[in-house]
Design a protein that fits this description.
Blueprint: E1 2-3, E2 10-11, E3 41-44, E4 53-56, E5 68-72, H1 75-86, H2 98-109, H3 115-125, H4 141-152, H5 157-176, H6 203-211, H7 216-227, H8 231-234, E6 242-243, E7 248-251, E8 261-264, H9 270-279, H10 290-304, E9 312-317, E10 323-328, H11 338-350, H12 354-361, H13 367-373, H14 378-385
Antiparallel strand pairs: 1-2, 3-4, 4-5, 6-7, 7-8, 9-10
């Protein structure tokens, strides 16, 4: 004997209905309603624990040519994706990875950038390597934040900011193509800004450089210290931009304010620049590359003069599997960019007017008013540089 589910009275074994109250004793599973013809299909893949619902577009009348839309965590998400498809909101880009999104975005965006700006985004993209193979529609803030946190382990806030900018640009690209509807980069957090004192060459170190100014490596370092050029700017200057008669150079890049600016040549370094000019057999003032000068000349010259610490010996393996030894300067106290800060400090010490320094060094702001209302001619800037001393 068994008992009724509803009235709890005894009823014969195997009864489908209660003989007292009529309650059905067996429950049958309600069948899920089939999707209407031509609206696509949803299947469950038990092997995919996190995204088991697979959505496919409708097939043709022969049952072929279905397109996989994507895998989803819930049935509702899969249904919404098919509804978006039926409304024409799902394009062939729907399943693209972050890598493909970057390729599509960069093809358009890089046309508006300088080489320097393009390189900065390419460097930022390296920090997205853990997620480049993921579908961009499946990426959330936590995924981008992981890349930011990894970048912050070995880099400053500026590098992290560039990674965030790139994430934001890629999210906007996905939004424009109806892949996602939210910019997840808006919620990213950056490491705190650590104010670090900018390193410069001290007067004692400059004196050491001047004592060894017969060394051509040192001459180039002094040119950087007394012109304020970035190292990349100096090594890109063409001889036609150097006026030895009136003692000035037209050069610079990176920003609008810093491009093709007028930089007077101090008498202190005039002979060094003339020597480079006469010695060069190309259209450039300096024939070396930036990378070669930095690795093989700049740091070694400073080390030999006792200004920075000795390099460390490291071993690397080439593509043929052979081991090689090389000397590396890891985290040196002074870098080529420190020469630019040194120039600014020397100008301030010499009493160069802030607005003159702004024009020479190529910064957009000495507050906006100065940039708009103060107009300095070449003679004034030349007089400003003449204040510099050893």
């Amino acid at each position: 004997m068994i008992f009724c589910k509803k009235c709890k009275k005894e009823i014969p074994d195997g009864s489908v209905y209660c003989c007292w109250c009529g309650k059905k004793q067996e429950t049958t599973k309600r069948k899920k309603a089939k999707r209407a013809s031509g609206t696509g299909n949803i299947y469950v893949n038990a092997k995919c624990k996190h995204h088991p619902y697979m959505a496919y577009t409708p097939s043709d009348r022969f049952g072929n040519h279905r397109t996989f839309i994507g895998s989803f965590a819930t049935l509702r998400e899969a249904q919404e994706a098919l509804e978006d498809y039926s409304r024409g909101n799902v394009t062939e880009l729907y399943n693209i990875t972050l890598e493909k999104a970057y390729e599509g975005w960069s093809k358009i965006h890089f046309q508006k950038l300088t080489k320097s700006g393009e390189d900065s985004y390419k460097n930022a993209y390296k920090y997205l390597s853990p997620i480049v193979g993921c579908k961009i529609r499946e990426l959330k803030t936590i995924d981008y934040q992981y890349c930011i946190d990894e970048c912050a382990k070995n880099n400053g806030r500026a590098s992290c900011e560039k990674v965030r900018q790139l994430c934001s640009q890629l999210c906007k690209y996905a939004m424009q193509n109806d892949i996602i509807d939210k910019n997840y980069a808006e919620f990213l957090t950056l490491p705190k800004q650590s104010k670090k004192e900018k390193e410069i060459f001290t007067h004692e170190e400059l004196n050491i450089l001047w004592k060894h100014s017969d060394d051509e490596r040192v001459q180039t370092i002094l040119i950087l210290c007394y012109t304020g050029f970035r190292i990349g700017e100096l090594f890109n200057i063409k001889k036609e931009s150097v006026n030895l008669t009136e003692k000035y150079i037209i050069g610079g890049k990176k920003t609008e304010a810093g491009t093709d600016r007028f930089v007077p040549i101090s008498d202190l370094i005039f002979d060094f620049i003339k020597n480079l000019y006469d010695k060069s057999d190309t259209d450039k003032l300096i024939n070396d590359t930036v990378d070669y000068f930095r690795r093989k000349k700049f740091y070694f010259a400073l080390y030999e003069l006792g200004i920075i610490e000795a390099p460390t010996e490291t071993i690397y393996i080439d593509k043929n599997g052979c081991k090689h030894k090389k000397l590396e300067f890891k985290n040196p106290r002074l870098t080529p960019h420190c020469t630019r800060h040194t120039f600014a400090s020397l100008c301030v010490e010499a009493g160069v007017a802030p607005e003159d320094l702004q024009k020479i060094i190529g910064h957009a702001k000495f507050e906006t008013t100065a940039d708009i209302y103060i107009h300095k001619n070449h003679e004034q800037l030349t007089n400003a540089i003449s204040l510099l001393k050893k």
